[in-house]
Design goal:
322 residues, elongated, 11 helices, 2 domains, Rossmann fold, two-stranded antiparallel sheet, single chain, 7 strands, alpha/beta, 10% strand
């Protein structure tokens, strides 16, 4: 086993599940980051791990800003309009729905209301509770709590996360009651397929939809590229050959090949960003464990390093067989 990520991969830390402190306010949130949404609003340092190109995030964020600006919401100079809006973010589990909502909220808070601030309620994203009765009670409690802290003419941002069939109407009623004398931006988030038709924006109620999608090969490459770039050691500490292998120990062509070959779909209906993040993390850790303790990437030539490039197809089949 190699001593550390720098000697093994020319990385400062694990790009998919960092083990060194990131400077979070709540350090417990760093545990298993490869499986959790990036709670950027409460932990701004996590914004560094947010990859706009690992899916439709960047495009959707631009679309949201364009929509909000038409309603008078601006970050520069900061100002807020007067119209409430309802949004949906829906799709398969692990496609980044909660993370996208966090990125949107972070921008929205820059659109500061005159003489005030946004009252953000995003606690639902911290707990995955899918029991209908529990969710209904949570919605009622959330509405009561919000009324106490956000009075008339206040600005509220509500994230109704992990919604299941049987709770949407109550969430919509909360929106209707709160918007009577408040400006409310509400995000309805769900992976429940039964709710997809109502969240798509095609019904009578005006909802601006954002449908999250499965990961593509290009998305996966961009995700790995962005994370590797964050954690790569400074240029003076890199071996010269690394310029030709910027994703090392991964390889762009190999990632495209694995997706094109359908290797992941042998066991999954579709692959989401979270699925890929978990696999990349396990593959990296397995490779670290397999390397000799004296291994030092800086002392290797390009020819010597090629056998150590992670093959997604081979590693994935190994994970499934274990």
């Amino acid at each position: 086993m190699a001593d550390d990520f720098e000697k093994a991969f020319a990385l400062r830390d694990n790009p998919f599940g960092p083990i060194l402190p990131l400077g979070l306010n709540n350090i417990a949130l760093q545990d298993s980051l490869e499986t959790k949404p990036l709670l950027i609003h409460s932990e701004p340092v996590l914004n560094d791990l947010f990859s706009c190109d690992a899916g439709p995030f960047g495009t959707y964020l631009d679309n949201f800003k364009t929509y909000a600006r038409k309603l008078g919401f601006r970050d520069v100079p900061p100002r807020a309009g007067f119209k409430s809006s309802l949004f949906s973010i829906y799709g398969y589990e692990g496609t980044g729905k909660s993370t996208f909502a966090q990125a949107v909220i972070t921008w929205l808070e820059k659109c500061t209301p005159a003489g005030g601030r946004w009252h953000v309620r995003d606690e639902w994203s911290f707990v995955k509770e899918k029991d209908v009765e529990t969710q209904l009670k949570r919605i009622a409690n959330e509405q009561g709590a919000l009324v106490k802290v956000a009075g008339k003419n206040s600005y509220c941002c509500i994230v109704a996360d992990n919604l299941v069939a049987g709770t949407l109407d109550r969430a919509l009623r909360m929106y209707d009651e709160l918007t009577f004398d408040r400006v409310v931006f509400m995000f309805l988030i769900s992976s429940d397929r039964e709710l997809y038709p109502r969240l798509s924006g095609d019904g009578k109620r005006p909802i601006t939809p954002f449908r999250m999608r499965a990961l593509s090969a290009n998305d996966a490459v961009d995700f790995v590229k962005d994370r590797i770039a964050i954690f790569r050691v400074p240029e003076k500490q890199r071996p010269a050959w690394l310029a030709a292998h910027p994703l090392y120990p991964f390889d762009e062509e190999d990632i495209h090949s694995a997706f094109a070959g359908g290797v992941f779909l042998k066991n999954l209906d579709t692959i989401a960003l979270r699925d890929f993040s978990v696999m990349a993390n396990r593959m990296l850790m397995n490779k670290l464990d397999a390397l000799d303790e004296a291994f030092d990437v800086k002392m290797k030539t390009e020819a010597e390093i090629k056998p150590h490039i992670i093959s997604l197809s081979d590693e994935y089949n190994g994970l499934m067989a274990a």
